[in-house]
Amino acid sequence: MSGPPGTGKTTLAHRVASAIGCPAICRDEIKEGMAHATPGFAPGPGDPLTMRTLSTFFDVIGLLVGRGTTVVAEAAFQDRLWTPGLSPLLGRADLRILHCTVPAEVALERITARSANDPRRAAHEDAQIPADARLRTHNAFQAVDLPVPSLTIDTSVEDYNPSFAEVVQFLS
Question: CA-based angle 103:75:150, to the nearest 5?
Answer without folding.
Answer: 70
